[in-house]
């Protein structure tokens, strides 16, 4: 009651500590988060710090109450503790005093957020940092001018729509190592506070999660349940399917209802979701276009999305006729954007090597970057233009140059 409110106010205004002790300095918030402009939103670090303090207050309150009760009514102490454990184990919460544990913490945290804005989205798991996504793409995604533009515009437009009629469905295509997984990871990192570890994000790898054709009915039921649970848990969910060309048609039947267009009525609280499919299908078509431009003396940046998308759609439709289930999504108009990933050239591999050295805080020289790039296999046999593995094994190859 009143004592709890006083305790929280003392915590927020003066910090914790016993009478006569010097309050801890307030500097750590500034050190952890940086300067916060006056009137600006309260950041995640400050919120987490106060939540941690509130958790300590909650635990102390519980211990103090039990200590006081046992001192005053010693005979009933064990019985009271037993009843308290039964109440906490009960699946149906009830009113009780004192309010302790996780319920206490969550209520106090919600009260804190009512006057101190914890996050812009209303859900502190969701950050939707499009500016950061663009910056990371510009600095770390090499040789993919089409993917940069399409992904940023598609995601930003979808998030700005207050009531989308359907889920956003992106289909990434290209050779292994060209950046499909990297982009998916960056999208997760800039839309969600915990990135791929967020409970708003699910990643499915076809051969890892659905390896046996004999169990497809079981996989289908599990997949439907997991997607439903994710959507119920999070109003903005991200679902990533790697090796999408290997998805069984039964599994796509489980996914399709979540991607289909919603009716306009009764959808005020419709969960918004983003589906990303990663596939090697279409990689050869993309490479042929890039090679034709190079042979014609034209820059790869001149390759337009319209040209590649037209050729990709033709190949994917043929793939659908050859039992590639993932391509059936295109025929049913469930895919919103086909995102091509171009093959990487020698200088792109050097940039990947530079990023790998920087990520590990290691020194490098231009000669070292050349040595890393020269370890890769380049195709076609005559031109030796494109890295056969993209940048996939570059972080491992720099181990050869460690002292």
From TrEMBL:
List the Gene Ontology MF annotations in alphabetical order: ATP binding; ATP hydrolysis activity
SMART domains assigned to the protein according to its UniProt record, in alphabetical order: AAA
Where does the record place the AAA+ ATPase domain? Answer: 166-309
Q: Which UniProt keywords apply?
A: Signal
- What Gene3D superfamilies does this protein's entry cite? P-loop containing nucleotide triphosphate hydrolases (3.40.50.300)
What InterPro entries does this protein's entry cite?
Answer: AAA+_ATPase (IPR003593), ClpA/B (IPR001270), P-loop_NTPase (IPR027417), TOR1A_C (IPR049337), Torsin (IPR010448)
Signal sequence region: 1-17
GO CC annotation terms, alphabetical: endoplasmic reticulum lumen; nuclear envelope
Could you say which protein family the record assigns here? Belongs to the ClpA/ClpB family. Torsin subfamily.
What's the protein name? TOR3A protein
